[in-house]
Amino acid sequence: MGSQWGRDRTYLRAVREGYRSRAAYKLREIQERFRVIRDNDNVLDLGAAPGSWLQVARSLTGGKVVGIDLSPIAPLEGVTTITADLTNPSLWREVSALMGIVNVVVSDAAPKLSGHRSYDQARSIELGEQALAFACNVLKPGGNLVMKSFQGEDFDHLLNEVKQYFLSVKTYRSNASRKGSSEVYIIAKNFAGAGNEA
Fold first, then answer.
1. What span, in angstroms and rounded, lies between the C-alpha atoms of 84 and 74?
2. How many domains does the chain have?
3. Residue 179 is part of a domain; what is its CATH number?
4. Is 148 an annotated catalytic residue?
5. Strand pairing partners for 81?
6. Whole-prediction pTM value?
7. ∠ at Cα 176 (63, 154), nearest 5°?
8. Whole domain around residue 57: which residue ranges?
9. What is the spatial distance between Cα 27 and Cα 23, in angstroms, rounded to a whole number?
10. Which of 54, 97, 190, 195 is the S-S candidate for 167 at Cβ 3.0 to 4.6 Å?
11. Is 198 a domain residue?
C-alpha cells in the first residue's frame, strides 16, 4: 500500500510499529471512539488482505479472529485466514461452523480504483452491500459491523439499508485516511436481526 500512496508519515509509522498497512490506525481510531470490539469477541474481517485490521483485532480480543479475502493473507499468529469469494453462500456456513458465535464483522474492503470516480463509488457500494449481506447471515443479535464505503450518490441508500438491521448507525471519517479521500466508515452497533437478507 505504501508504494501506491506514497511514504507519508502514517505509512512510515505503520512500518515502524510492525503493521502491514496504514489502515491499522483507522480501526484503532474507530475502536477508541466507538468500542466496537470487546475483550472476548469473535471478530470476522472481510476483505482482510494484507492483514493490518487482523493485527489490530488480534490485539483487542481474546476471542477468535478470522479473515477472508480473495487474495491469500500471509500467516498471522492466532489468526485464521480463508481465501474465498464473499459472494459464495456456502462461505456463511463455513464461517459459522468455524467461529461459532460471530460478535463483530469488520470490512476495509475497497475496489481496485479505476480513476473514474462514479464507477469506483458504485463498486464500493456493491462491496458494502456484500459485506452487509454477509454480516446479516453470521452476526449474533447485538453484534457490531464496521465497513468502509465511498461517499457519493448511492451512499445514502447503503446507509439506510444498514439502518434496517442495526439499532445504532453512525458514519466516521478517519484521520488516517489520505487527504482528499472520499472514504467513510459506517459504524453499526447492536444487530437486530437479518430480516429478508438471509
1. 14
2. 1
3. 3.40.50.150
4. yes
5. 67
6. 0.90
7. 90
8. 27-191
9. 7
10. 190
11. no
